[in-house]
From TrEMBL:
It comes from Thermus brockianus. Transmembrane segments: none annotated. Gene3D superfamilies: 2-enoyl-CoA Hydratase, Chain A, domain 1, Lyase 2-enoyl-coa Hydratase, Chain A, domain 2. InterPro entries: ClpP/crotonase-like_dom_sf, Enoyl-CoA_hydra/iso, Enoyl-CoA_hydra_C. Belongs to the enoyl-CoA hydratase/isomerase family. This is Enoyl-CoA hydratase. It comes from the Bacteria. GO terms for molecular function: catalytic activity.
Length: 254
């Protein structure tokens, strides 16, 4: 249910239930978690690109998975939380290509990309209140940080269907790309990131997420700690050497 393909330092992951609009199940989430964990352990993977098969990114949770039983949502969300932790803590930059509708938890997963591209036909819907639920999969954490509290309340309480262009205006995606060029451009972007200073990318993401809960003094302290870590990488040495030699750096992700 998750297709995996390596292309020049990029691990392409495709949610592959096109007949169900890539609706999420426990099995699919486990496969996605394992793929992200494997990416962390593979030195040949320098960036990850996530997209969906067919005409959707993901329609969110597949409610038919529960049958007639009332789900234990607290237990069920442990599966989602594993994936969110893997995405937010990924040791490689993450690009998301939203090729079609992204709803509910599908929208949540899309927003965890470090860089997010969308096709013109992509749509974004929080969807949770439509079935009497609260946001999950990290949306309550991430959405107000992306669009502000007031707009997040609007999107969560009214659950409008946003076009790709509306999502771009709100900062939910970074660029809208013609559908026929979406994967080409997303892959090129991921390959550019794959040639960069991987550890610096990851530490920058960690810094940005952490500083929302820190005072200025604490943020300055964390900057110093993470800068010390970045300064000990081989990529930093190469960056300084390339600067002095007036040539492009050749980063190795170490």
């Amino acid at each position: 249910m998750v297709l995996k393909e390596k292309r020049e330092g990029v691990l392409l992951l495709t949610l592959n239930r096109p007949e169900k609009l890539n609706a999420l199940t426990g099995a699919l989430l486990e496969e996605l978690y394992q793929a992200l964990a494997e990416a962390n352990q593979d030195p040949g993977v320098r960036a990850v690109l996530l997209t969906g098969a067919g005409r959707a990114f993901s329609a969110g949770q597949d409610l038919t998975e529960f049958g007639e039983e009332k789900p234990d949502y607290e237990a069920h969300l442990r599966r989602y939380n594993k994936v969110v932790a893997a995405m937010s803590g990924l040791e490689k930059p993450l690009v998301v290509a939203v090729n079609g509708p992204a709803a509910g938890a599908g929208m949540s997963l899309a927003l965890w990309g470090d860089v997010r591209l969308a096709a013109p036909g992509a749509t974004f819907t929080t969807a949770f209140v439509r079935i009497g639920l609260v946001p999950d999969s990290g949306m309550s954490f991430l959405l107000p940080r992306l669009v502000g509290l007031a707009k997040a309340q609007e999107l969560l309480l009214l659950s409008p269907r946003l076009s790709a262009e509306e999502a771009l205006a709100l900062g939910l995606v970074h660029k809208v790309v013609p559908a026929e060029r979406l994967m080409e451009e997303a892959l090129a972007l991921a390959q550019t990131l794959a040639q960069g200073p991987t550890r610096a990318y990851v530490l920058t993401r960690k810094l940005l997420l952490e500083t929302y809960r820190l005072s200025l003094e604490e943020a300055l302290g964390l900057e110093a700690i993470l800068q010390g870590e970045a300064g000990r990488t081989l990529d930093h040495e190469e960056g300084v050497r390339a600067f002095r030699e007036k040539r492009p750096p050749r980063f190795q992700g170490r």
